[in-house]
Predict the 3D structure of the following.
Amino acid sequence: MGTIGPDEHESAGAPSGSRPDLRLVKTLRPQEYDEVLHVGHIFRKGQPVVMDLTGMSDAEATPLVDFAAGLVFGRRGDMDRIAHKVFLLVPPGVALSA
């Protein structure tokens, strides 16, 4: 995926004392709604997340996208659709480069 620029080592959403490795983007493939909590947990730690919903029907995937959109909005992050049913959630203070 992407890499972090040299000046972006700390995320505003990460708890003090525990910084995620921002060189990595975590990919999760939830299969049911309850698994979206893992997406939220990792995102709130300040780790960028790719949420891959390609294994779900549109009806199953829609509530997960709604949850992720609310999470990102509430935490002042960013969410981009990178492919059909694949979304990148970027925590606040994190800049990814191509």
